Amino acid sequence: MDGVGNQVAHGAEAQALNVVMLGPPGAGKGTQAQRLASGHGLPKISTGDILREAVQAGTEMGLAARVTMEAGNLIGDDVMIGIVTERLDRPDARVGFVLDGFPRTVVQAAALDGMVDGRGPLVVLDIVVPEDVLVRRLATRRICSKCGVNAVVEWTGNCQACGGTLVARIDDGVEIVRERLKVFLRQTKPLVDYYSTRSTFRSIDGNQPPDVVTAKIKSALDEAARSATL
Ligand SMILES: [Zn+2]
Predict the structure, then answer these.
(1) What 8-state DSSP symbol labels residue 25?
(2) Of 1, 119, 147, 221, which sees the most CB atoms within 10 A?
């Protein structure tokens, strides 16, 4: 990754940029995490991706995850923490990372604090979108019939990644979407509480066009990183 050399070249002052993105499904978290990561030359680490990778690579934690999933169980804190630890130990994460989907619990958050200890501040960005807007977004979500990517609201024609046709996602009804969101918000509330009093925590208004959100994230990040070094 090109950004690695550049960041190190800034000298001893260079500080790792460790970012956690919080936010419910439909908040645009994945898109923003991707933009942030490529803009700063950081690896975007999403738990779905690294779970698949670890299982494929057959690491100790990957094998544990596979056994759990094959038994039809949810991946517990220990395995999730193990897999993220393995991932953050890789050289490309030394300059920082953008985490998407981890931590999900306070236990995981406390473990993450241990992992980044001595590696620079941890900036936490919480993308907030009103529940009704989320429900509407999730219920009207479109995907590419060819490559499966989630369509961004602005895409009017075909998929901008591969040119494929956009189709409505076969999804659950509004009531099920609403219920799933409520469960998510209830489960992640302790996590937001865990972080919200820190000087490096920023709440971002995600009910705006994606480019505006990206700009807000950029200034929030600069501000949070500055407050961490004071
Ligand atoms: Zn496509």
Answers:
(1) T
(2) 221
Listed residues: CB within 5 A of ion ligand 1: 144, 146-147, 159, 161-162, 164
Is 180 one of the catalytic residues? yes
Tens digits of residue pLDDT in 84-118: 999 999 999 999 999 999 999 999 999 999 999 98
Contact 65, 115 (CB under 8 A): no
Q: What is the pTM of this model?
A: 0.80
What distance in Å separates the CA atoms of residue 9 and residue 112, rounded to the nearest whole number?
27
User: Does the annotation mark 52 as catalytic?
Assistant: no
Q: Is 104 a catalytic residue?
A: yes
Domains identified in the chain and CATH numbers = 2-129+186-229 (3.40.50.300)
The full 3-state SS of 158-211, as one line of letters, equals: CCCCCCCCEEECCCCCHHHHHHHHHHHHHHHHHHHHHHHCCCCEEEEECCCCHH
CA of 92 to the centre of ligand 1 (A): 28
DSSP state letter for 43 = -
